[in-house]
Amino acid sequence: MADPAIPLTLEAHGAAHLPGAALPVLAELEAILSRLGSDRPGLRLRDIPDLAPLLDASGEIGQIASRWLGPDARPIRAILFDKRDGTNWALGWHQDRTIAVRARRNVSGFGPWTIKQGMQHVAPPFALLAGMLTLRVHLDPVPADNAPLLIAPGSHRALVPESDIDRAVVSHGIHRCLAEAGDVWVYATPILHASDAAARPATRRVLQIDYAVADLPGGLDWLGI
Fold it and tell me: What is the pLDDT of residue 35?
């Protein structure tokens, strides 16, 4: 494990913990998300009018991304993860390597293509991923036994071949992203991360939002939220 006594920074480690950053809007977020009523472990969020103003660059959550990406930061994907007894899964070490777009177009450097939940996804050039930021807004406490996100600090600077992932995790070390309700974890989108199943399953809702600045080339459009 990486030394938990050393605070992580986005610049040095690719991740940062912002205690209580979402507390002012936590009740509002819970009210919006409670209306979704999905029992799926991961729900892609789209076309939720009450949520969009909070996630925009000028909104209470979007302003966090704007600290690092600037005023042109925009949310391009939002997912609600709801891990609890009955949906208690584990996720192996990996990097997020794809983006969701409105339609498939053949553009140099973009590929391969996949379809996930009926949506077109494509692997973009690494430079695009490196310019993205991911926020995890915690609606519930995440102690050590409630499946905190695991990250390998500093592993965000390059794509890691799948055959080298285990060695990269050993080299960079592992940090457990513990949180209280209302905390926000910010990390570079391509950082290596994983999640164990909860040892003592309890409600663990996390709103995860990816942010980007750049337009896509060749007529590609972000699918958006």
Answer: 85
